[in-house]
Amino acid sequence: MINSVIDRRKENVLRSPKRGGSCRDDSIQYLQELGVQITEKRQAIQFTNNVNECVHRWAPYVQGFSASFVQSVFKRYGQEYSAPIILDPFAGCGTVPVQAKIAGYKSFGVELNPLLQYIADVKLNSWSVRPSHLLKVYHDLRTDVLAIEPRFLKSERHFTPKVLTNLKRIKGGIDSFHPKTEEQTRIKKLLNVAFASILIDSSKLKRTPCLGYWKAKTVDDNAPFVLFDKRVLEMAEDINILQSKYNDSLSVRSEVVCANSTTYEYRDKYDLVITSPPYMNGLDYVMNYKIEMAWLGFITSHREAKAIKDDMVVCDNVSKGLIKEFCKLHYYNNTWLDEIIATISRNIRARQAYRREDMPLIVSKYFDDMNKVIEKVSKALTTGGRFILVVGDSLIADTYVPTDLILAKMGTEHGLDIENIELARNRRSGQVRDYLLRETVVTLRK
Ligand SMILES: C[S@@+](CC[C@H](N)C(=O)[O-])C[C@H]1O[C@@H](n2cnc3c(N)ncnc32)[C@H](O)[C@@H]1O
Predict the structure, then answer these.
(1) What is the CA radius of gyration of the chain?
(2) What three-state secondary structure class fits 427?
(3) What one-character DSSP code corresponds to residue 171?
(4) 209 preceded by cis ω (within 30°)?
(5) What average pLDDT values come out for the chain (446 residues) when binned by 10 residues?
(6) What is the pLDDT of residue 6?
(7) CA–CA separation, 221 vs 255, rounded Å?
(8) In the chain, which end has fewer C-beta atoms inside a 10 angstrom radius, N or C?
(9) pTM of the full structure
């Protein structure tokens, strides 16, 4: 039975009318209606470039922005505002606010995953910790106390026994350090971030970008200590650089709060909103980080993880129950979306085998969630302010979904103008590999 479903799915992909197709052709009608063109401006917007960059390297986050992209936006538009105030409603691990602080701009971010918000906060607000104090606490950490691993996870499958014991020794040492000053509290948080950042490298897993086992991976018993040492030394080195090179930025106000950007009410106004929302049918930002979230105590059960995930802008492994509930609600629609959703429904029925039969509703919920965010952010923009979204499109059940253009149209419905849409890079569809997708930078203006 299972095999026949899989075979049918493979057959559907082989027979797809979209094979060899491209988002370029399938976007023509939408672009004509919007009266805009997509211009080419190739740029590196992915986090991979950050792994060696000051502060950003403290926590490798595959879904993050490249620091240089954020910097290029500041260079391009920063001068048009006097001391621009920056917002990122999907702040992740804080690339935008960190770059804003380096540039001396005030910033604010919203992020729903408590682990990522914690990392962003540590990257933003540890700049005045004295590196020598960080290193002293690190060298004095106890190694004779074993923390208890998260009981609801299969840690014995994630790590070899010796690696697991060494991780428990490091975490036990951090937990046994009881801060007495504000600086020591910051140091403890830095150590927690350093610990979280080594978990996947110490495990039998890898993120590509989804978390999965990697059979060929071998990890040295001592890896946790080696990796942790390297990370803490990098932190001390970077803080040194921040204090000598960016001393003027130390007091610049930068905050990332743990909240839901579909409902968040902004109190301030912002000149530049730079963000990358979750991509439709993209990543699960909770399950992919559940190991780090659990070890740092942000979740103590799968139920808690699910509760956070249910509040996120929807991804395609959302629970069926949540989608059923959504079905009863009034949701955002427009003529493009109505047609796209009807085509997805028709194609899924014709295929007789599709990963998620409720995909049309998932697509609806994605745009409903995004509409709420765009509405709130548009209101929080200053007149003349810009809303810059980096976003990718999708091919779902042989139906092209021009996410960037739909979000741009949504922006116009909330009083923004489309200033430009730039192609940053081409991508390939996960299902029909020879169908060309894109990643664009959409700039809307109030
Ligand atoms: C593409 S990532 C952004 C990465 C970020 N630009 C960076 O450089 O770290 C999207 C982020 O949106 C967050 N997110 C998803 N739904 C959210 C919601 N409703 N409110 C706030 N954040 C949300 C996810 O946890 C994820 O970190």
Answers:
(1) 23
(2) strand
(3) H
(4) yes
(5) 65 84 96 96 73 89 84 95 96 96 97 98 97 98 96 95 98 98 98 98 90 91 98 98 94 97 97 93 86 98 95 87 81 90 93 84 94 98 98 95 97 98 92 92 98
(6) 67
(7) 38
(8) N
(9) 0.95
- Our answer on whether the CB atom of 66 is closer than 6 Å to any ligand 1 atom is no
User: Is 107 touching ligand 1 by the criterion CB < 6 Å?
Assistant: no
CA end-to-end span of the chain: 54
Helix (H) or strand (E) holding 285: none
**Which residues share a beta bridge with 234?**
none
**Structure tokens given for 61:** 């986050």
Nearest partner of 182 among 235, 227, 261, 125, judged by Cα? 125
Ligand 1 closest atom vs CA 286: 25
Contact criterion met (CB below 8 Å) for 283 and 314: no
Q: How far is the CA of 123 from the centre of ligand 1 (A)?
A: 16
- For ligand 1, say whether the CB of 261 is within 6 Å of any of its atoms: yes
Q: How many CB atoms lie within 10 A of CB 29?
A: 12
Residue 254 pairs with which residues in a beta bridge? 107
On whether the CB atoms of residues 209 and 63 are closer than 8 A, the answer is yes
Q: Report the half-sphere exposure of 57 (CA within 13 A, side-chain side).
A: 16
pLDDT of residue 5: 66
